[in-house]
Design goal:
The chain is of the alpha/beta class. The protein has 2 domains: 217 residues, Rossmann fold (3-Layer(aba) Sandwich); 66 residues, Alpha-Beta Plaits. Helices cover 36% and strands 29% of the residues. The chain has 11 helices and 14 strands. The strands form 3 sheets. A 6-stranded mixed sheet has the order 6-7-8-3-9-10, sandwiched between helices. Strands 2-1-4-5 form a 4-stranded antiparallel sheet, with helices on one face. Strands 12-13-11-14 form a 4-stranded antiparallel sheet, covered by helices on one side. A hairpin with a 2-residue loop joins β12 and β13. α8 crosses α11 and α9 runs antiparallel to α10. The longest helix is centred in the C-terminal third of the chain and has 16 residues. The mean pLDDT is 88.
Length: 314
């Protein structure tokens, strides 16, 4: 498995408090990986360890296959990082801020001249790069923060709560920006508690609580494992007993309820069985007007997992 990030039994303690508890994390390269958990779950502590701001008490960290310990410059140069709610000097212009960060990265003047305009355009701030940051909206400040995380063309981009505090428009802007970043052969690792936003952009997710990883897989597999079987809603032109019986006799149907010309079919499988249901209805003389499948979303799956863990802890 080609991994961008890997931790083995990662543990961080603050006195008697264990913030990260034997965390085993695997993040594949060139994915958008959501790192989810309630407040206090250990997300930010984990990220600070990954970027070298904190040292773990136990366990190992590998970045791009190389084991790292503490603050190592070569590791930091492969990671672009935007902390939660970044704060920048309000008197600086956006382009000035990026130029200063570029100098800290060791970029030459020519490299900065070439890279900064590209990033300004990528994050949607072209024409506003010479405005003071103090005049930027929250969304614009988040986007200039993402631009500084991309300055040295890192292979891994870590974003801690990139949509926190934004209005719906700002959330959409950041969401589309994350998708654009991922298209450039980068691994994007996003920590968030905004589950709807994660569901819109991520290919993989890890859910943690109390410093422990509860599940880690592709988004679809996580939903499939946690949300339970789906419900099919089918509308037919005319509903008959023969149609209801035909559907009820299918081996993967738990029960069927009807309202007018609508059938609500509760399934016992995670598989997509719409073709079989359609065939059964048609053979029974029915004409399908519409068919939709309803599954639980990430928020429902998340709460199921957290509640299950908390029930086990008590």
């Amino acid at each position: 498995m080609d991994l961008a990030i890997e931790t083995v039994d990662l543990t961080k303690k603050y006195g008697s408090l264990t913030a990260v508890n034997k965390l085993n994390l695997k993040v594949k390269r060139n994915t958008i990986h959501g790192f989810l958990g309630p407040n206090g779950a250990g997300k930010t502590t984990t990220i600070k360890i990954l970027v070298g701001l904190l040292k773990p008490n136990e366990g190992t960290v590998k970045i791009l296959g190389k084991e790292v310990q503490g603050d190592q410059a070569d590791t930091r140069l492969s990671i672009g990082y935007m902390p939660e709610l970044p704060k920048f000097p309000k008197h600086l212009k956006g382009s000035e801020l990026l130029d200063i960060y570029g100098q800290m990265y060791g970029m030459t003047k020519q490299e900065r001249r070439e890279q900064i305009p590209k990033l300004v355009e990528l994050v949607g701030l072209k024409g506003r790069e010479n405005d003071p940051i103090g005049k930027y909206s929250k969304g614009m400040q988040q986007r200039i923060g993402i631009a500084q995380a991309l300055l040295n063309n890192p292979e891994i981009v870590i974003l801690d709560e990139p949509s926190l505090g934004l209005d719906p428009v700002g959330m959409v802007e950041v969401r589309e920006l994350v998708k654009a970043i991922a298209k450039e052969d980068r691994t994007v690792f996003i920590s968030s508690h905004l589950l709807f936003e994660i569901e819109q952009v991520c290919t993989h997710v890890t859910i943690i609580n109390l410093g422990k990883a509860l599940i880690s897989d592709t988004l679809q597999n996580v939903l499939s494992k946690l949300s339970g079987p789906a419900t099919l809603h089918v509308e037919v032109t005319a509903l008959s007993d023969a149609i209801v019986t035909a559907v009820q006799n299918l081996p993967f149907v738990a029960d069927v309820t009807q309202t007018g010309n609508f059938l609500n079919i509760n399934l016992t499988t995670h598989d997509d069985v719409r073709p079989q249901v359609s065939q059964a209805i048609t053979k029974a003389g029915g004409i399908i007007v519409s068919m939709s499948i309803q599954r639980q979303n990430l928020e429902s799956a998340f709460m199921t997992l957290i509640n299950k863990q908390q029930g086990g802890e008590t």
